[in-house]
Design a protein that fits this description.
The chain contains seven helices and six strands. With 234 residues, the protein is an alpha/beta fold. The protein starts with a helix and ends with a helix.
């Protein structure tokens, strides 16, 4: 992959994130509209909990929310996460509270970036782990990112491969069998990739960290991952 191709991927990635950050702020939608499956959609689909990445609100994941809602899934979000700047553990506690408050079961977590770490942390919590059927993570730094070492902000340094929480999550191999990790051939934020030992790993031809959220190839793989989990549970 040459430098021009990578540079183009960087530009398109940040153009995408800029658009959706502004769009999500100016044109907010009520997440309650996603709780009831779309008209004419199949019934009995698993509930989905969306968890965004750092400095992202759930609105950033609206392409995924719209797609899954049209497919018949009730889609849930945790508005208390805000821009998801807290620690993985603190954000997981908020998400756990939502699952318990709404008494959700057989939940599929669909997450982006840091959201995947929060999702896996939830799978290690004895209080809510039984409520979760599987995790589908897009471009998640399961092994951290070497770039995090160069930042002073604690919220970014937390993605260091040496971070205690990340090391704890990596050591939990048992949960990986219920994880699908989807990632592209070039992610400027996660140079080491998002491969997870023992998980279902799907590498696509996508490029970028943010833009793949709306890529049809990623949406199709999310559908496949959820479908595979439903078949396993049958």
């Amino acid at each position: 992959m040459d430098l021009i191709e990578r540079g183009r991927a960087w530009v398109l990635d940040y153009a995408y994130v800029g658009f959706w950050q502004v769009h999500g702020f100016l044109f907010r939608v009520d997440p309650a509209q996603y709780l009831t499956p779309a008209a004419g959609a199949p019934e009995g689909k698993a509930p989905v909990l969306l968890i965004p990445g750092i400095y992202e609100t759930w609105q950033f994941m609206r392409p995924i929310a719209d797609h899954l809602h049209r497919a018949g899934h009730p889609v849930h979000v945790v508005q208390k996460l805000g821009y998801n700047r807290g620690t993985v553990e603190a954000m997981a506690q908020l998400a756990a509270g939502y699952l318990e408050e709404h008494d959700l079961t057989d939940v599929v977590i669909v997450a982006h970036s840091k959201g995947g770490l929060i999702g896996k942390f939830l799978m290690t919590m004895s209080s809510v782990a039984p409520r979760i059927s599987r995790l589908v993570a897009v471009n998640t730094p399961f092994s951290g990112s070497i770039y995090a070492e160069f930042f002073l902000l604690p919220s970014i340094r937390a993605f260091s491969p040496h971070n205690t929480t990340l090391r704890r999550l990596r050591a939990d191999i048992e949960s990986n069998r219920r994880i699908t990790s989807i990632y592209g051939r070039f992610d400027p934020h996660i140079p080491g990739g998002s491969f997870v030992e023992g998980a279902r790993n799907v590498q696509l031809g996508t490029m970028g960290h943010f833009r793949p959220i709306a890529d049809t190839r990623v949406l199709e793989e999310i559908d496949r991952a959820i479908g595979a989990g439903e078949r396993d549970a049958a």
